[in-house]
Amino acid sequence: MKSSDLEFSREKEQKITRRKRRNHSPAFSGYPVADKAKVAVAAVKGDKTLAELSEQFDVHANQIQDWKKQLLEGAEDVFGGYCQVKPRFGRLRS
């Protein structure tokens, strides 16, 4: 390898910079929980397609699928999850 080729490759390496990672728009991080639930419930109902819901709520279809999945997974905790109620009185009598 010639010295001029080596110099060229070093210059090229110095000029290459990594692009910064793109962040999601602030609209997603600030989306109110109540609105997320409304979108997820509409998706669970199944009256409209994901494309229709996406257009109606101005949210990407993949995001709607994620919220729907979270809602369905969380529903198990509401109806059959671990109960953390403490007994009001010490021990039960036998």
Mind sketching the topology for me?
Elements: H1 3-15, H2 26-29, H3 33-45, H4 50-57, H5 61-80
Search tags:
94 residues, mainly alpha, 62% helix
Structure description:
The protein has helices spanning 3-15, 26-29, 33-45, 50-57, 61-80. The protein is elongated, with a radius of gyration of 27 Å. The chain has a domain at 31-80. The longest helix has 20 residues, at 61-80. It is 62% helix and 0% strand. The protein has 94 residues and is mainly α. The protein contains five helices and no strands. The model has no long low-confidence stretch (mean pLDDT 75).
Tally of separate helices: 5
Average pLDDT: 75
* Strand content bin: under 5%
Q: How many β-strand runs?
A: 0
Cα end-to-end separation: 90 Å
Secondary-structure element series: HHHHH
Q: What is the C-alpha radius of gyration, as a whole number of Å? A: 27 Å
Structural class: mainly alpha
Low confidence ranges:
none
Q: Identify the overall geometry.
A: elongated
Helix content: 55-70%
Largest sheet: none
In short:
The chain has 94 residues and is mainly alpha-helical. Helix content is 62%, strand content 0%.
